[in-house]
Write a structure and sequence with these properties.
Residues 1-82 form the GST N-terminal domain. By secondary structure, the chain is an alpha+beta fold. It contains 14 helices and four strands.
């Protein structure tokens, strides 16, 4: 068995897959890509993942892309260790519905405050021509970057993204209440919890945790996720934005 994971420390989609691999105790070679430097756009990587994003898993020569697909692939191929897919078909369908919701609502929404609050200085330092060339090179993120531009997303777009994140938090709260918690579907975490984990961790890192004020079940869910043995090796040093961007740490210190 040979597993190689092409990923980036701060990539939320990469963090999902790292968590599953770590939880199952699967040894893997990690290839860390610098996304701002464009490592994901070089021809050798695009030959593996034509979407030009991370993560990509290579298992004995077979290439698997898309974080949700990779997580389910690992579950199917490596049944050892904790299981993150319920055996009951109804519970499994609920899990997959939650995963689709995460990929449709909070996962895209968190990109807006991430880029505005953390990555924007990098793009502001670029010339307009260099920025446009970089945006045009992105197979999946071209329109997103062009909408942001070198001045960032407007206040209206930030407000809309925070609104979507707030609705997602409410959905999590309601789901935990219905299952009895502490996780989304009950006593044990599933791929649905792992899917949304990087979004909630990123929100806390960006000081957006006020969005679950008054929702103690969500705070307890986050603590239960952080207590999982796979959490620390998944969020190794450099995986949080505040560890890499001094301006974020300064903003936090000023609050």
């Amino acid at each position: 068995m040979a597993l190689t994971l092409y990923n980036a420390p701060q990539s939320t989609c990469s963090q999902r897959v790292r968590f599953v691999l770590n939880a199952k105790g699967l040894p893997f070679a990690e290839r860390r890509l610098d996304l701002l430097a464009g490592d994901q756009l070089v021809p050798d990587y695009l030959a593996l993942n034509p979407n030009g994003v991370v993560p990509t898993l290579v298992h004995d020569g077979a290439v698997v892309i898309d974080s949700s697909v990779i997580m389910e692939y690992v579950e199917e191929v490596f049944p050892q260790g904790p299981r993150f897919v319920p055996q009951d078909p109804v519970a499994r369908a609920r899990m997959r519905s939650l995963m689709r919701f995460v990929d449709e609502v909070p996962a895209p929404a968190i990109r807006v405050p991430t880029y505005n609050l953390a990555f924007l200085p990098h793009f502001q330092a670029m010339s307009e021509a260099a920025f446009l060339a970089m945006a045009e090179s992105k197979p999946l993120r071209r329109e997103f970057l062009l909408a942001m531009g070198r001045t960032g997303f407007p206040e209206s777009e930030m407000a809309a993204a925070l609104g979507r994140l707030g609705r997602a938090v409410m959905r999590l709260d309601e789901t935990i209440a219905a299952s009895g918690g502490p996780f989304l579907l009950g006593a044990a975490p599933t791929l649905a919890d792992i899917s949304v984990m990087p979004v909630i961790v990123r929100m806390a890192d960006l000081r957006l945790d006020h969005l679950w004020d008054g929702r103690p079940a969500v705070a307890a869910w986050l603590e239960a996720i952080r207590a999982q043995p796979a959490f620390v090796p998944t969020y190794y040093s450099g995986s949080l934005l505040t560890e890499q961007y001094p301006h974020l740490r300064e903003q936090h210190a000023a609050c």
